[in-house]
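Mods, move this if it's the wrong board.
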Amino acid sequence: MTEGGMGAAALLAKAEEIKAKGNEFFKNGDYKKAITRFARIRAYTWVPSGEARQYGGMGANASREFQYAETETQQLTRLDQIACGNIAQCYLELGQFRKALDFNAKVCGPPCSRGSEAAERQDREAPNPDLHVKALSRSSRCLLAMGDLDGAKDCVLRALGLDPQYKPARALYKKLQEAFREHAAKQKQTLKGAFAADHAITADDRVDLEPDRLPIDEDPSDGA
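Not the wrong board. Structure tokens:
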């Protein structure tokens, strides 16, 4: 146990107790209450988690109050990421996709292009690969709902690259393929209509072009 603070076992036990209540709210569809419970978990996990490292809280010079064994830090970091992922899922269910992405970013990093240095680093250094894959898949769902097909594609392909058998990502990939087909069809129709409108020759145009001829009943686009 740390001096002046709770030991990792006590932190985990308390956080698990809160998580169980949050899960109950989630299953009942009470996502707002679930969010408040999952957020409370972070009060017991944020200090020894990865986020605290940027403030020097886990290094050799860290206060002895917050020094944990590596295995304890890993356990608490995992629980912290589970809490963030659960909060993200709640926001997704509520249709608050931007907030869901913000909490997903605490698990898998912010969305970035597949194959980029940032994406490769995120995927390579993920402390919990299974949670990382889930967060990528969840981010893909958010981006798809927001109409960002390219961003959704990047996330889901990264998820499948790490775990080709992850069923939610496989199902999402099929849904995304259909979304791309629909988008392409709409775009084609829009471009076709715009092109026709820009290049159509009207009856009045014919009179201007051929003043010695009177327009008759014919397709105004003939002779374009």
